[in-house]
Amino acid sequence: MPDPDGIALILARAQFAFTVSFHFIFPAFSIGLASYLAVLEALWLKTGQEKYLNLFKYWLKIFALAFAMGVVSGIVLSYQFGTNWSVFSDRAGPIIGPLMAYEVLTAFFLEAGFLGVMLFGMGRVGRKLHFAATLMVALGTFLSAFWILSANSWMHTPAGYAVNEAGQFVPAGSWLDIIFNPSFPYRLAHTVLAAYLTTALAVGGVAAWHLLKGRKTPEVKTMFSMAMWMAALVAPVQIFVGDQHGLNTWEHQPVKIMAMEGHFHSHPEGAPLFLFGLPDQAAQEMRLPVAIPRLGSLLLEHDLNAPMRGLDTVPLEDQPPVAIVFWSFRIMVGIGFLILTLGLWSLVARWRRKLHEWIWLHRMALVMGPAGFVAVIAGWVTTEVGRQPWVVYGLLRTRDAVSPIAAPGVTGSLIAFVIVYFSVFAAGTWYILKLMRHAPAEGETPPADLPIRTAGITPAAAVERGGEEER
């Protein structure tokens, strides 16, 4: 029976937040890593340099583990729609269901069809076919993000729908309006770039570890250089995309922006930008604020004197938890600017020809290694908690979407998830870190597992001979 005190709702939300936080870490890594593997294999095929092949094999093992953990943790999420969120599944199923099915029919089939060739095909199929398989896996990871983010974005900015007599959201008109809902392009670009930066930081952190240990092999130096290029070039783009995403959110979900900025009160002429402070939602005020006058209006309205509404125009029951959104947003933005700092510092080191010599740069890269994962989780918290109290923004409240279940049932499954996740995924993460402790090319299989018709020919020689081995 339903829980009159809302404890079951809190537990169901906690369970979904816990499982999706674990899950989100692995796709954020595998999306970027799949593309990185495709780049490495392309460079090896183009140049014939063995260091790219060694790096490919090194990161392929790590990708396989991260991908597997992402798939397993993702399966659990779909079951929760039926067990804990059956009302949401019934009401939004006609729209969310097909979008999830498209993800299976495109992304999952590509990944499942070509992953085996990518993992075990080198030495059994031609190099071009193997590279094609790697590209298909990378494409599959992108398509997976495409469809999942389309479904998630529709919950934030619903479009192209009608409500039938049963209270269900059903398609009305073109599916393109549903798929490409107002927030989707911004959310897709912001999330995919975050995945690339997360991977770059992880790769750069591993390389920095080995550089600090004195292992300045060609493979280590190459992957550090590639990671720093990504940080230097993509971080500014990500900051711009994030700003555009924020402007889109201000247009379609202004209450979320009010919470992110900590604006409890309306500002009739020029809103400040709160850098820090202690949001007090009960008192509806920002305590101990550190603010820059009028900068908030400039960023959101491009006018120093533009008026801005605050949470005093929103009923208390329609406000998200301000403190969580306020601080998670600042964690994400702060890490973004630290990535930019790392990238710019690496450009200075590269210009001074000290990229592989500056110890403090390597130390910062090592410390920043896991920062991308923290940033994507903080971004997810900002997005999803900022949407509250709605599960479909403005249309279906979270409290009305939960299954009619009692608290003990959710408590048992939540405890089981915590135990299993911390044991199984901790073991997987530990093994990934163990693999990362060994520098590339230390114990890597030499390129003797190429097709038998290339036996005795190194990759460089094969490329120089114009692909004679393919004949």
In short:
By secondary structure, the chain is mostly helical.
Topology:
Elements: H1 7-47, H2 50-83, H3 86-120, H4 127-156, E1 161-163, E2 169-171, H5 175-179, H6 184-212, H7 218-252, H8 254-261, E3 273-280, E4 285-292, H9 295-301, H10 322-351, H11 359-367, H12 371-387, E5 390-392, E6 396-397, H13 407-437, H14 459-464
Antiparallel strand pairs: 1-2, 3-4, 5-6
Helix pairs in contact: 1-2, 1-4, 1-6, 1-12, 1-13, 2-3, 2-7, 2-13, 3-4, 4-6, 6-7, 6-11, 6-12, 7-8, 7-10, 8-10, 8-12, 10-12
Structure, described:
- The chain is mainly α.
- It has a domain at 197-397.
- The protein has 14 helices and 6 strands.
- It has helices spanning 7-47, 50-83, 86-120, 127-156, 175-179, 184-212, 218-252, 254-261, 295-301, 322-351, 359-367, 371-387, 407-437, 459-464; strands at 161-163, 169-171, 273-280, 285-292, 390-392, 396-397.
- The strands form 3 sheets. A two-stranded antiparallel ribbon has the order 1-2. The chain has a two-stranded antiparallel ribbon with strand order 3-4. Strands 5-6 form a two-stranded antiparallel ribbon.
- Helix 1 (7-47) runs antiparallel to helix 2 (50-83).
- The longest helix has 41 residues, at 7-47.
- The protein is globular.
- It starts with 6 loop residues before the first helix and ends in a 7-residue tail after the last helix.
- Residues 446-471 have low confidence and may be disordered.
